[in-house]
Amino acid sequence: MPQGEGILLTWETAAELQNLGFNIYRGESFDGPWTKLNATLIPAQNPGATFGAKYEWLDTGVTPEVTYSYRLEDVDLHGASTFHGPVSAMATGVTSVVVMSFGAHGVAPAVLLLTVAVAGALVVQRWQRNGAARKQGADKHC
Fold first, then answer.
1. Structural domains of the chain, count
2. HSE value, Cβ hemisphere, 13 Å, CA-based, for 21
3. Is the pTM for the entire model greater than 0.90?
4. What is the pLDDT of residues 44-93, one digit of tens each?
5. 119: domain range?
């Protein structure tokens, strides 16, 4: 998903039970500090539904060749927050970040799938809620 100038973050919910919406945060490292990118809550597409939805956010406020970290906050109908990530990406002109499988409350633990395509290399990592990462594979296209 080349986006030219920016980093495209996409995520998908399995269900949206009790889900009000999302906030996206960017930091300079996995430890932050974190800056909220969206001015208002990104609303859930199917609040209360047993099925999910797909979301995306294009971060155009990035500098090429700088690595950024991102966290996703899901906010439930009662105002409680759950944070997912962090994941990292570097804008190089053709960079794509895909964050998928955020379960709503009451669904199996959330798993992040990060795909970063940089200079012809594809790296996939799975992130458990506890932040542990497992490398799924690498595929180089030179």
1. 1
2. 8
3. no
4. 999 889 999 999 999 999 988 889 999 999 999 999 999 999 999 988 75
5. 7-140
